[in-house]
Amino acid sequence: MKVVRFGRAPREYRDLVARVAHRLPGQLVEEVRPGGQGRHGHRQDGDPRYYLKALAFGMKRFYSAVPFLFLVGAAQAQIPAFAAASRAAAAKGEQIAVLAGGCFWGVDAVFKHVKGVSSVVSGYSGGGAATARYPVVSTGMTGHAESVKITYDPSQISYSELLRVFFSVAHDPTQLNRQGPDVGSQYRSAIFYTSQDQKETAQAYIDQLTKAHVFPGPIVTQVAPFEQFYVAEDYHQNYLALHPDQPYIVFNDMPKLRRLQQQFPAIYKE
User: Fold this and answer.
1) Of the chain's two ends, which shows fewer C-beta atoms within 10 Å, N or C?
2) Is 21 annotated as catalytic?
3) Does the structure show a pLDDT above 70 at 47?
4) What is the C-alpha to C-alpha distance for residues 246 and 52, in angstroms, rounded to an integer?
């Protein structure tokens, strides 16, 4: 018998496995398997889904038993609303917000459940077109950040309210070049502003939260001008809804949706 840790899946299984959470309590993501299997933890003569389903089941059981473990590293309570009023006139028609907060699967899912948001697309911002592909972006050397492009109606939800959700439940803005188990500049916290008003709102909100000592550490969110958004591969789109039992989703992203529903019931939508 040999004990191994799940790692990165082969490309043919990446849409099924993708990122498996690391460093979880109790060695939960380890499996005991007989010899004669591939280095990625899949039986060479069997169906890898067997192992993944068993792993997901165990993770879901563990998650239901100790939900408090998944609140570590994020805002523990709803953060204060933006205190300053925007100096710009309320925009008319749908607007765009581009945010980066680690793996785009969870950020995408959070904003898809926010009232006033009509569309969320996962993609890459901060780098060039030639390298805007997942295998290359994953090296952390392209300048991109995994991002989401949010289309919203400002008459239903303001830009500052989107940022409140972003800072409260979508990610941890105190983690530099990482989010949870994901490490690299492609997982950085960033706000790509599309207007001067968005820039001023983002900077003022970060200053407000910093002065109020809302988080235990400094906010490291980058505020940068939006240049281009490159849509990610199809298998990344709407990932949580399509793979709710995927281990990474169970441990890292489902808790975000629960916090969204608990902290922002007035703007939560199914």
Assistant:
1) C
2) no
3) no
4) 8
